[in-house]
Write a structure and sequence with these properties.
alpha/beta; 24 helices
Length: about 500
Amino acid sequence: MTRVPKQPTVAVARKRRTPAPPEETFLGMPAFRHGAKNALANTQQRRNLRHATGTIRAKRAAVVGEVADWEGLRRAGEDVKNDVLAHLDSYLVQFEEQFTKAGGTVHWASDADEANRIVTDLVRATGADEVVKVKSMATQEIDLNEALEDAGIAAWETDLAELIVQLGHDRPSHILVPAIHRNRSEVREIFLEEMGRYGTAAPGDISDSPPELAGAARIHLREKFLRAKVAISGANFAVAETGTLVVVESEGNGRMCLTLPETLISVVGIEKILPSVADLEIFLQLLPRSSTGERMNPYTSMWTGGGSGDGPHDVHVVLIDNGRTNALGRLHGRSALRCIRCSACLNICPVYERVGGHAYGSVYPGPIGAVLTPQLRGITSDIDASLPYASSLCGACFEVCPVRIDIPELLVQLRHEVVEKKSHARVPSANQAIFAGASWMMADARRLTAAQKLASAASRILPKSGHLGPLPWPMSKWSNARDLPNPPAESFRDWWKREHEGGRP
């Protein structure tokens, strides 16, 4: 699953090489049904997920219950984001004007390759061979760390959970808590084995208590914060009215990245725009309650351009599309762009709780990933086509979404598109062949009657166990997870004729 980690000497470690990224990117992963089957076999991960998501759900419910009109707040957030999506072009231009006026530089990237090229060139221009990073879904989406590594630039994750994932040569499995699939004992082992290869080692007698683990991470990262000349961030929001970028976080690592380096590069999806500073009042209530179960985030950082004194003086923002305008052009799909990456839908989802994030084969896992990823990437692969089926359609995700994205409705729409696409394939699938045969049979009453009589006759010679055993291919794909009852000895039509018409079947 992962590239063999490097074994650097002390001299090589001083060159500050980044931990090797996973060999297999999200795009190379199997379809959801295969990933889910493998994940279900990992009992330790299932215990970790059940404990973590249950804890977050309980915290969220408590703080949401304190808001007098939570539903009104949700609708306000929905209205603001709908307005943004309806006028995104003008808000983006306004943001560019204001950000530039404040001394920053705006770059536009149509896809991941262009965004990676822009960021790499900006870092190279400073002469730096390393960067510190604030947790960012957008940079994960475009595989920025891997692109920087290929260019000889070490990218250090500074969020604690992201650090765990990076040192473990792993992939994130959650939007908010990327290492949610790891428990404290596993984190301790990762720190002991890996930290010393890339900086200050963890103490040899470290326990698995959270304070000690956090303390080891703090010491390990401090030297990187103090020497880094370049930082890379994402943004939770970008305010068009003032050209302001906003990052909320819980550990203070973001504040260190946003204030210490000389150059700051922010990679931001074009849908992160808000019209005005006043709109932040809504989202700074919705986001922390829905994500971490807190009334407000411990650290909320805002910056508008650069400065000549303390803090970054060379400030850039890379606005990326990477499939977002494709989703924006879809009448039923654009609502997914309202997402503020809170992860509430993951924490409530019974499917995610059992299989975790890796099974989704996307940087955006869970219910929102199942509707957002196929629209960003297009239904061009087996995994994209499988994601709309990664749900029980229970509707819990819509109930907790702070911006009221009707994820179940979007899933149904995407399932329809998957089926339509398959229906135009040159060679019909086994599923299509079966339904075509059923359609032919049910289109004529005589054929249906003959089939019913054949089934009734078969029931007399079948075992009396109540259900059929495994069926041969291609029906095995359906019957291997379901009990197929024996056909009835008498059809409804025959019963009706005997009971109500006084005749013999």
